[in-house]
Amino acid sequence: MASTTPEDDLERFWQPPPASLSRLPTLRSTVASWSSPRLRICRVAQLDADLLDGELESILHAPVSAAIDGVKVRSPWQPEFMAMLRLAILKLSLWESNATYGASLQNLRYRDEGKFAAVCAGGHAAPDSGLSTVQKTAYTALVVLPPYLQSRLQDRMLESSWADEPLPRSWLSLREWKRAAWELLSATERLGALLGLANLLIFLYNGKYRSLIDRVLKMRLVYARRAFTPNVSFEFLNRQLVWEAFTEFLLFLLPLIDLH
């Protein structure tokens, strides 16, 4: 029996690469050119995060108001207290973890969407980058300052009865400038509400920017952890619904019962 060398065994088991292997670089470039699927973030979770932030602000505002209840300057300084409260909440939440408290409870956080889109357009893998210092500063200013200035201006105008001034004969006339300023403030409020409604409709369509501030600053809420299962217990909610239905049934039934 003829002996075989290792070279003969290697030659016998070695097979040339298939012809389809030459198309692998082409397939790789084709797959790389495909656009990634659009990121879908739950719209309900984003809106719930906004509601939770509002509830937190209301809960914290109650003890602050109670603590300064005996101070005579409470009423004149109420807008300042609210502004400082909002500033403290944002400093301890957004500046520390790129997310508000409500967003953290919904497993959401902000990312710099402008930077993310620019990196993706360059063909590179873009990590979920956090917010820049400019974005955080601008967000804090836009959340805190406009409500404070609006409250202060409105209180000043109402105390001085600017709304009772006669309407200006011409908007270029400076004689009735107080009433013109009041009308301008009212028009600004209506314009803000209209823009907010338009942004809400766009958000419900694509689920990208929840508020006008987020859209202007290119701040988008994304999932903080991709693999996350919220552990929510509906036991209390179910009990509350049962008792509410039972109470409504009793209120409907008692007038029909003749106790005499």
Description:
The protein is 61% helix and 4% strand. The protein is extended. The longest helix has 30 residues, at 177-206. It has a two-stranded antiparallel sheet with strand order 1-2. It has one domain (39-229). The mean pLDDT is 80. The protein is mainly alpha-helical. The chain is built from eleven helices and two strands; from the N terminus they run H-H-H-H-H-H-E-H-H-H-H-E-H.
What is the end-to-end distance?
A: 118 Å
- How are the strands of the biggest sheet laid out side by side? 1-2
Mean pLDDT: 80
Q: Give the number of domains.
A: 1
Largest sheet, if any?
2 strands, antiparallel
Q: What oligomeric state best describes the polypeptide chains here?
A: single chain
Total count of strands: 2
Which bin fits the share of residues in helices?
Answer: 55-70%
The number of helices is 11
What structural class should be given to the helix and strand makeup? mainly alpha
Radius of gyration using CA atoms only = 31 Å
* Low-confidence spans: none
